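Problem 12. The chain below contains 417 residues. Write out its predicted structure in token notation.
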Amino acid sequence: MSADGGDQDQGRIFENILTNMREGIMTCDSNGRIVTFNPAASGLLKMGRNEVLEKSFAELFFLDARNDPFNELILKAIYDPKTPHDGEVEYFHGDHRIWLSVTTSLLSDAANRDLGVIVVLSDITERKKAESIREMFGRYVDPRIVESLLDQPETGGERRLMSVAFTDLEGFTRLAEKTTPAALVDFLNEYLTSMSSPISEQRGIVDKYIGDSVMAFWGPPFTSKEDHASAACRAALAQRALLADLRRRFPKLRIDIRCGISTGDLLCGSVGSNSLRNYTVLGDTVNIASRLEAANKAYGTRILVSEETRELAGGDIEAREIDVVRLMGRTRPSRVFELLALAGELSDEVRRLRDRFDAALGTYRSRDWVEARNLFESCIELAPLDRPSRLFFDRVERFLENPPAEDWDGAWRLESK
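Solution.
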């Protein structure tokens, strides 16, 4: 075989290697003229091989100011080829946008003469998306949830069926007035840490802290579509279980919480300014959860859940229906339930009260005021401290004297938020 034939074979092997490489390869001579440009580089930079070969790098890439970091890195390599240069930069070509890992090294011949520079380009866009998600959630969210986002890295707006909860510290204003600022901050940090733990354990996301209030949400891709309502309920019950420890550690403070949970369609996505963004949820379901939390004050309950939450949680929880209400800002009445316990964990005493209360509620809605009063009175005998039973007993007493209109639908309007 002749020497020329051997050179040709080596040349074909070299071309085949360049063609089949996943990394983009570009070589430039000492004048910045592009000599080599493999198919992978063409795909990454969105330029055809015939467009770039024998052209000046500056002539091709200096047109888009967005590529200044990329251009600066390549130019450093061209004019200082003996020093390796590498970095991670964003590259733009029209609407095309990609993150690249750029590595350069000196290109020399067999006689060790400088021929220019070789540039290796790797697509790191998916890794950058993953890093962005980790940065967005990592400080606030259980790492398992962050990892679930990496499978679906897009954080744009999307409608999903999800559950939202608001947990609020009862009597915070009174507590703040009796506590020094430093002691109050110490307590709030301990309190918010305690209330956030069950949320993370149940694969929820702490959306934000609003003073002493904690807003959290559950749903795909963080929690399965079948389990998010149950998970929110489990978290709320676990929060209440942690109060005993908080009371032990802060014996001078009167500590109690109220919680509202709602389930429905929500718009979720990364929302905010260019400098500060937050993955959050938006929609009427959020408002309902907030108003259910506040409605606990009217009924003397601790955890109220919406009808949709009750239905989706199904047999996972024990609950009693409290009322049909028109929440402030809404015309359609909604059934509201008190979350009592997880399935199978309800005491016999509370179960008897729930069954008696259900019967009383049925006679109340059928306008049998005398029987309703008797049944609610028997509920009070079973549980003298049960606020909903006393509330309905008083309401029925008023209806005995002044019955509602004939078109009454059994709904009660809650005026407070």
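Discussion. The mean pLDDT is 87. Students who got a different answer should revisit the alignment rule from Section 12.3.
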